[in-house]
Design a protein that fits this description.
It comes from Cytobacillus kochii. Pfam families: ECH_1 (PF00378). This is Enoyl-CoA hydratase. There is one protein chain. Strand 1 and strand 2 form a beta hairpin. The chain is α/β, with parallel strands linked by helices. The strands form two sheets. It has a six-stranded mixed beta sheet, sandwiched between helices. The chain has one domain: 2-enoyl-CoA Hydratase, Chain A, domain 1 (Alpha-Beta Complex). 49% of the residues lie in helices and 15% in strands. The longest helix is centred in the last third of the chain and has 33 residues. The chain is globular and about 55 Å long. It contains ten helices and nine strands.
Length: 263
């Protein structure tokens, strides 16, 4: 079985009732540019409509899951008029991934940061290699989280802890993320093997009943997710105009500590 279109930045394969989706920009640690966002959304939509598929595994090629949004292409070079279009594409991807009537698994190795972590949080199970690093690090460039992170973090941590994690923006080890309830399992050695075992276990459960429970909960929570995505879009547009954001970008490019002024 194969999907009826080609992609440049996303690999996918189907084995039995399981789809494997791989972000494929390893040279940039799978940073999410506009092309990858659109292609990921297209693949996830197609998989959502395939009744033959029960499980979707999301991972990254090379050394990382995803280092987040591609700063150079999405924040530096993009025309300001393109920003709402980019945010709409991100929101479409997140809603599709969160709502798809499949059991979804993120397999994290290396970095899962910013928007990359947002995507992982939209899945049903998060498996992380013990050496991986997770970070909600938008604050480092004077931005707020997007990709539904306010929704996902608040639902997992509560509003107080979600705020503190966002404000800190510090990298977490897989163990620290597990202790905070963001990761479902930390894998000591072979991540692929651990995920395959999980897939095998799920395939021997009444998975249609599991998917129905997921649909009930996602249908209930979807209006709030949509509202928060719009608030993130509006808030991000405001933050992009601040001096702190410009300083954060310059510091990132120049590989130095930013000097924020609160403006």
């Amino acid at each position: 079985m194969a999907l009826d279109f080609d992609t440049k930045t996303v690999n996918y394969s189907i084995e039995g009732r399981v789809a494997h989706v791989e972000m494929n920009r390893p040279e940039s640690l799978n940073a999410l540019n506009v092309e990858m966002i659109h292609e990921l959304a297209a693949v996830m939509k197609e998989l959502s409509n395939l009744e033959e598929i029960d499980i979707v595994v999301l991972k990254g090629a090379g050394r990382a899951f995803s280092s987040g949004g591609d700063i150079k292409t999405m924040l530096m070079d993009a025309n300001e008029n393109d920003f709402p279009v980019v945010m709409d594409a991100i929101n479409e991807l997140v809603v599709t991934l969160y709502s798809m009537p499949k059991i979804t698994i993120s397999a994290i190795k290396g970095a899962a940061a910013g928007l990359g972590l947002s995507l992982a949080l939209a899945t049903d199970f998060i498996y992380a290699h013990k050496d991986s690093k997770l970070a909600m690090n938008f604050i480092g460039i004077g931005l707020i989280p997007d990709g539904g992170s306010h929704f996902f973090l608040e639902s997992k941590l509560g509003p107080d802890q979600a705020k503190h994690l966002i404000w800190e923006g510090k990298p977490m080890t897989a163990e620290e993320a597990w202790e905070r309830g963001l990761v479902h399992e930390v894998v000591g050695d072979d991540l692929d093997e651990a995920v395959n075992k999980k897939v095998y276990h799920l395939s021997h459960l009444p998975i249609l009943a599991m998917i129905k429970t997921k649909k009930i909960l996602t249908d209930k929570n979807r209006p709030l997710l949509l509202k928060l995505l719009e608030l993130e879009k509006s808030g991000q547009a405001q933050m992009r105009k601040t001096s702190d954001h410009k300083e954060g970008i310059n510091a990132f490019i120049e590989k130095r500590q930013p000097r924020f002024t609160g403006k």
